[in-house]
Design a protein that fits this description.
single chain, 5 helices
Amino acid sequence: MSTELRRRRRKAPKGRGATPHWLGQLPYVLVLCGVGGGLALCALNYFRKGSGLMAAAVLFGALARMVLPPSQVGMLETRKKWLDVVTMTGFAVAIAVVAWVVPD
């Protein structure tokens, strides 16, 4: 193999601040797992605990969207940052209120 071909095949070195691609999707996966776990608890007749877990997961998503840079929030970034945070916080509060208001 020629030296020129080897040079072309080399990849550019990653900088110090470079993170793996999958790490950017981690907050989204955590929110998705929390909501899925909450739905599973609701299916097992633990409505308040399941709804609380879903509200906490969505609130975690809002916090992650507010704190992390755009390269690390993955699919949680859909609109402007302030609109994402307000929407997810509103959904989390609505889920928590429904869980609290519904009788046993």
